[in-house]
Amino acid sequence: MQSNDYDACPLRAAAGREWMEELPPTNRPGEAHWEWYVDTKTVIFSPEWRDMLLLPDSAPLSGDPDYWVERVHIEDRDELIRAAESVFNDRQGSFAEVFRLLRQDNSWTWFLARGHYEPASGAKPAHLLGSAIEVSHLRLNKRFHPPKTWGDSLNYRALLENSPDLIARLDRELFPLYVNPAVNRYTPKTSEELGHSSARELGISAEQMAFLTRNVEAVFQEGQAIRERRSFSTHLEEGLVGDWTFWPEFDEEAAVASVICQMRDVTEQVRAQHKVRLNEMRLDALYRLSQMLHAPQEKLMRYVVESITSLTGSAYGYVHLLAAKPQKRGRTFWSKGHYDFAAPGELPHDTLDPDIVFFQEHDVVDGDYYRINNGDQTNPIYTAFGGKLRIMRYLRVPVMEGSRLACVAAVCNKGSDYEEQDIQQLETFIKGAWLLLRRHDFVQALGRAKEAAEQANTAKDEFLANVSHELRTPLNGMLGMLQLLEDSELSNIQQQYAHNAVLSGKTLLRIISDILDFSRMASGKMELHSAPFDIRATIASTVSLFAGDAEKKGIELYAVVDDKVPPSLMGDEARVRQIIFNLLGNSLKFTETGCIYVECALLPHGKGNKAHLYLSVQDTGIGIPEASLDKVFEAFTQVDSSSTRKHPGTGLGLGIVRRLVDMMNGRIAIESEEGVGTTAHCTLILERAEAPAAPKIRQIRSLASADPLDVLVAEDDAVSRFAMRSFLLGSGHRPVCVQNGRQAIEALKLFPFHCLIADIQMPFMDGMETAQRIREGRTEGITPSREVAELVAAAIPECAAARGKERPIPCNLPLVALTAHAMAGDRERFLELGMDIYLAKPVIRSELDAVLEQINQRIRTA
Questions:
Q1: Residue 425 and residue 418: Cα distance in Å, rounded?
Q2: 639 vs 517 pLDDT, higher one
Q3: Is the pTM for the entire model greater than 0.70?
Q4: What value, to the nearest 5°, has the Cα angle with vertex 650 and ends 648 and 652?
Q5: Phi and psi of 785, rounded to 5°?
Q6: Considering only CA atoms, which of 18, 65, 59 is closest in space to residue 40?
Q7: C-alpha dist (Å) from residue 716 to 14, 82, 346, 648, 757
Q8: In whole angstroms, what is the distance from residue 398 CA to residue 434 CA?
């Protein structure tokens, strides 16, 4: 770019900002300043540039950097831009470049420019700040030439002499042809003394000498500048960091004559950056820790230990939490590195073992646990794990809670000596972590209390829901039978209806009685009535109540009474019967195959008129998990309380049994093994008496009514199933009744039923899951079973001809929710979840007919 049309710059107006005004003079001969605002595409120069570039006084010294960059020689431009942008983008470091710049008279002049990154301050955005000197007299095709005499360039020499950077001019043997005064900060010899010594004679470490030799030799061979950041040490200080640059100097024949070595000390900058990174790491670690308040303590403390280890650059660390009470033991958490030397079981977790930790008692002076021990860097301070772990350096800080030592955090074997900043990082982090740990304990405690309260509330809600369901289900069966009985003449079938009604009534009576009994027991108002009764007859009649159900399940039912048992006992027969009834009912409920064995015997402990009666009920059922054995006698407790549980109930049976046994001065115990069976043992203390009179038995009585529909019913309760089928048949419909949702989907794949009436609470697949699968079309993987196919074919003959052919289930199939959940909000909940119609138990026949008529109208208008 040869034009000087600066006024055409699009950012010309921006130069009027206060912070973009012309820079002041440098007051240093041969040097000029510049500021480059990369983000705003603006550059500002000091007045010296006018003289160096032969610009008129009217020419502005701020504006678009493109105008100035295009003045740079095309061969030098890319390298200059790359170096400057690298420093700006990295937000750190500096650059130094030699380049040619076009002057106003169209001649080229050489400049050495140095720049570094300046962060934003006030209104000033971040920018590059630097200076430049003209070095045309030292350049020839971008290569240095040594002056004829070292004093020929006073400006150049002044720059070197006053530079804060260490600058040395070395020959191939590392002999210092020139060393500036800055070298005095790093060696006890003066710059004049160094002029008579080779670098190899200055006591420089072998590692540092190898570094110098390698780079100087590379510059002599390749003639290219080399830049490298490297740590170094002096006789006064270790851990220094420098930006090293090696420049070639050429003679008239373009051969490398010497090497300029420049070292800029960036130790403080690097340490500040390192501190910033550590602070960021610490804050990040504390933030992550604050997000782990619900994590187990082991995971939490593992994170704390690894954090203090990495924050201090250590190889190992531990945190010891001291117990709040003297009689309690503390807890120690170790870093991962420790497990290279010991198995987890070998590391103590409740005390500080002096053979393993990083300090011993004499290290603690007047209760002060702060300690840095950097050792002599040759011999270990301590050894552990049989000498395998050599502790060379360590750092330890405490956490105090008032006057009590609450926590000790320690790290060891950092690569370099521990410093004050390590104490600050470790102390700040561990104190913040301790507060979070205390908060974690509070959150965990509150969580446990909340969980306990929620469990209690859930147990209460589940109990109420179960009671509602368990009351309405048998009541549904009972009322169904009674409705059928009302619409029929007394005949053999009516006797069957009446029998089913009696069974439902007894079931309902048992549940109601259990609830009332438990309520009376809890309030202490239950009393036992004493009268003579025959224990043999009581056992026989109670066992007979379960004979039919046992036979249907294929279970052998035995009852054995020892001959030594007195024929007549004094006591509350109803409560003894209730004990046997609940134990036997529980066994039958949880036994699918095998047998149930009831035993009654007389124990030899009774004295005088007292009889110690032993009763046991043994089954081959599913058994009880060991973790639940202690809870089986608790009220409202069930091993499985899910909505798809196979064995319903209120969870009161065994609780009532235990209370009744206690009232009879007896004891009860349960032994069980999962998959093998359960045995309940109990003893009752009764009095001997004469034989009682035989009990009497009573019988009870039960119903039938729309355009014919093919109706599928899913109901797990046998009596309710029977009642629904009878209702539908009596109304002229064709019903098919299955026992759960899975069987309902199987049946729907075999025949296009007009609707599905599904109980909400069923085993294996409940009504809501069935509805969701049908609505979403998720019925794959369910293949009709032979049992379901036979049920459908028996009720619908035309389905038999198409056996084996599956059909798609329409997603808009009318679905009726049949449920014993009849509390406020249940109807709305089931309709929102995909059901079309809600029908509550007990089912009233007129309501069922109204539902079917509603479905008929829907079919007619479809």
A1: 11
A2: 517
A3: no
A4: 130
A5: -85, 165
A6: 65
A7: 84, 80, 57, 11, 12
A8: 11
- Cβ(330)–Cβ(300) under 8 Å? no
Q: Copy the structure tokens of residue 26.
A: 């440098």
Given a contact cutoff of 8 angstroms between Cβ atoms, the answer to whether 77 and 52 are in contact is: no
Looking at residue 779, its amino acid is T
Phi, psi (5° rounding) for residue 51? Answer: -70, -40
Name the pLDDT band for 699 (thresholds 50, 70, 90).
Answer: very low
List of long-range contacts for 326-331, beta carbons under 8 Å, 24+ apart: 331/301
Please choose, from the candidates 554, 545, 663, 543, the residue with its C-alpha nearest in 3D space to the C-alpha of residue 600: 543
The neighbour count for residue 829, using CB atoms within 10 Å, is: 15
The Cα 228–Cα 262 span in angstroms is: 11
Q: How far is CA 529 from CA 37, 117, 659, 661, 663, in A?
A: 101, 98, 15, 14, 11
pLDDT in tens, 538-560: 898 888 878 878 888 889 998 99
* Distance, C-alpha 694 to centroid of its chain: 66
Backbone φ and ψ for 430, nearest 5 degrees, come out as: -70, -35
- Kindly state the tokens that stand for 811: 């997603």
Instruction: Give the amino acid at 84.
Output: A
Position 546: which residue type?
Answer: F
Q: What is the pLDDT of residues 320-339, one digit of tens each?
A: 888 777 667 778 888 888 87
> φ and ψ at 861, to 5 degrees?
-95, -5
Token couple for 110: 């050489």
Instruction: Output the CA–CA distances (angstroms, integers) from residue 548 to 474, 557, 762, in the order listed.
Output: 17, 10, 23
Q: What is the 3-state secondary structure (H, E, C) of 359-405?
A: CCHHHCECCECCEEECCCCCCCCEEECCCCEEECCEEEEEEEECCEE
Radius of gyration, CA atoms only, the chain = 47
Which burial class, exposed, middle or buried, applies to 716 when counting CB atoms under 10 A from its CB (0-12, 13-18, 19+)? buried
- Measure the CA–CA gap between 464 and 636, rounded to whole angstroms: 10
Measured CA to CA, the distance from residue 737 to residue 14 in angstroms comes to 87
